[in-house]
Amino acid sequence: MHVSISPPKGQHVLADLYGCDAQQLANPEWIADCLLLAAQAAGATVLNSHFHHFGEQQGVTGVLLLMESHISIHTWPEHGYAAIDLFMCGQAQVDAALCSLISKITSKEQSIQLIERGF
Fold this sequence. Notes:
Elements: E1 10-18, H1 22-25, H2 28-42, E2 46-53, E3 60-66, E4 69-76, E5 81-89, H3 94-104, E6 109-117
Antiparallel strand pairs: 1-5, 1-6, 2-3, 3-4, 4-5
Pathway: Amine and polyamine biosynthesis; S-adenosylmethioninamine biosynthesis; S-adenosylmethioninamine from S-adenosyl-L-methionine: step 1/1
Function: Catalyzes the decarboxylation of S-adenosylmethionine to S-adenosylmethioninamine (dcAdoMet), the propylamine donor required for the synthesis of the polyamines spermine and spermidine from the diamine putrescine.
EC number: 4.1.1.50
């Protein structure tokens, strides 16, 4: 049996942020700016974006479609919780995107998982 391990084709980060500021999580324009800054920090190319606000003091769901894959977020202001998904391939720097988001979104605790993707 021959096993071949090749370098990952991409990195997929799942970040759960707890104890977040509810006003930040309920602000769709602010959330969109945070994701755009994260993509810029990663050196990624934004192809398209969409953000949906569920109403006053409610959460935001947003996604950036990147040439290198995607960044998405789902927020629950009432629970102080944000779920972030960063998947990047090529030269994009997923760690720089994550650091950018964590520096902007105020949270008391983070749980980060890195999954190397490839074929």
